[in-house]
Amino acid sequence: MSAKLQDIHDTLLDAFGPQHWWPGDTPFEIMIGAVLTQNTAWTNVQRAIDNLKSENLLSMDAFAAMEVGTLAEFIRPSGYYNQKAARLKGLIHHIISNHGDLQTFLEQDTATLREELLSLKGIGPETADSITLYAAGKPTFVVDTYTHRIFSRHNLIAEEDDYHEIQTMFMDNLAEDVPLYNQYHALIVRLGKEYCKKSKPLCDDCPLKDF
DNA sequence: CACCAGGCAAGTA
DNA sequence: TACTTGCATGGT
User: What is the pTM of this model?
Assistant: First the structure.
């Protein structure tokens, strides 16, 4: 399996080219985007981020100063906006009160950062891993619905495998390499969006048809 | 119109 | 423990 997982990555990279993830300029923007994209199309997340950017509000200080209701209005296009606003405020409050600034928070070792993120309301395994990998640049593999759907449809994992099992399979069978983890997850999302939507059960002409 | 999108937590039995 | 439901906008 170890060679196969690397082969799949190479096939996807050959088909799609480098994805240049995460789509965001700063660790803060990446972290916010990771929460906003929960069960939400990225186009809607981009609208929310643009709303904040156009008012110069995409910063720790601005988020800390903003009323939760005000933040909710800015991020409205991303859906679940009341929940997400409250959870983002909680995240920012945690970082400031426990670490002072974002950089210090993100510089913790991988396991500590991931566990701390998981302890917060609104941060589950995928969001914690996305922030750990893409905002902090630390080696953890991100699993999402596309990963589960694509790899189970190709009988490379079992339908009932959970997040941790899938993540372990990738991390046990790939070199521990941040650029590799970064590219691999991005390529999986690219493949999912184009060839493996929920409503499109069969991958006839998908780049992974031989796997 | 129904279904879906780069989840997560809380409620129920 | 194992399901189910709420959260919500915008695109297809």
Answer: 0.97
